[in-house]
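Researcher: Here's my situation. A collaborator sent me these components and asked whether they could plausibly form a single complex. I don't have experimental data yet, so a predicted model of the whole assembly would be a useful starting point for our discussion.
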Amino acid sequence: MKRHLISAADLTKDDALLILDTAEELAAVSERSVKKLPTLRGRTVVNLFFEDSTRTRISFEAAAKRLSADVINFSAKGSSVSKGESLKDTALTLEAMGADAVVIRHRASGAPYRLAGWVRGSVLNAGDGTHEHPTQALLDAFTMRRRLGGLDGRRVAIVGDVLHSRVARSNVLLLNTLGAQVTLVAPPTLLPVSVETWPCEVCYDLDAVLPKSDVVMMLRVQRERMNAAYFPSAREYSRRYGLDADRLARMPEDALVMHPGPMNRGVEIAAEVADSARSTIVEQVTNGVTIRMAVLYLLLGGATFEGGTR
Amino acid sequence: MADAVPHAHDHAQDPSGAPDGARGGRDRSHSASHPGSPSQAPRAVLEGPDINRALIRIAHEILERTKGAEDVVLLGIPTRGVQLAARLAKHIEQFEGARVPHGSLDVTMYRDDLRLRPARALGATRLPADGIDDRIVVLVDDVLYSGRTVRAALDALNDLGRPRAVQLAALVDRGHRELPIRADYVGKNLPTAKSETVKVYLNEVDDRDAVVLIKKERP
């Protein structure tokens, strides 16, 4: 494993399987009465969040605490960032406080990569702009593997706002590494430039893809990132790319419905689908803590890394 | 001496990481002892049936000390301890007809030497359905050496429940304790030098039963 987790592309198949297998063993910890392991005692994990987040920040915090690490939460609101402090100066401050790992979410793609050059600890990307969100991809893969038994040859459809989605990119890269076949389904306006270079297929017609998918992952329509009209209306988007009960009925019987959250109920996913037994949405949150424990353990639990001074 | 049996690498799989640096079956550069091989060849201390004889005796001792093994739970420490615990459970069932629950207890996350090596893969922890509360837990390990693995196991148990008593069974006790820990049941006491390595091979994972003592002769 590398010292940082910045992109899902950093992970070889062996790395990814090691993380998933480790998570499999750690899942039991969340079911015990004492949900704590002493493994990262004395280590400090900083949650550096420049962008709003509920589940990812809480998930990382819970994961670090279950491994007995000390957690420092930093959010841009109410910090010196609002006084104009740069990312580098913030990073150096954290460095001086002795952070062993920095979990960063930033609105700018590439911020974690820059940060990794400034700090000695491990950098974990918790979402950077429209680039990547590797731990989300890992927890999605973990959820799929637990439900389906394996990922090799499985067909996964990722549907919706691919253009603004860091989850989509990380998932395509990781699922491809793990041997699954990914199809992106979106209106042409919501697909990124040069998507044809991604290791996946692209389709504009959801109804054509649904019947042959083992997993359908719905993406949130990210209105806060939309500065232009990408589709005529929410209703029209919902009719062509939303997952409703009719479409759910046309999926294979054991196919899964996933969503990284937060959901726009009634837009990309109907409420009855989100709450159905085939939806893994709540499970994904539970698995998020487990997978982040596995990542933190594998990055921080052992000895010095090459080029690292721990 | 590592080149004595170059083909032997295909077993001794140890995906779970090594609790003790010198624990049995863990060193990948292992070699087998052939009769008539050069004098450097490692010495087999216990061979096939010897191991089972030792386990049968331990099974009897457990029955004796716990008065029929009622409430006993056997927990093997990965990797080889797990198979040993299963074998002990089988023997006890044969002798007394009593079913003894057995499982595995991974101690990786509780080790005190985690920072000395890169993070390692975890072994399995599988507790019997009825748990360990108020039971007599017998920890089963292949080689007892520094005692640090056992200390980690005691910590792990503490997070999983509250046994009435904890006992320790080891196939081989090779001495050199670094902590105040001793075994309740020992298959064989094996005086060793710290420079030596003890390896345990079990049929279930290695296709042979043997305990081998290897002398390190590198400068």
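Model: Some features of this prediction you could bring to your collaborator: The radius of gyration of chain B is 17 Å. The interface with chain A takes residues 106, 109-110, 114-125, 155, 159-160 of chain B (CB under 8 Å).
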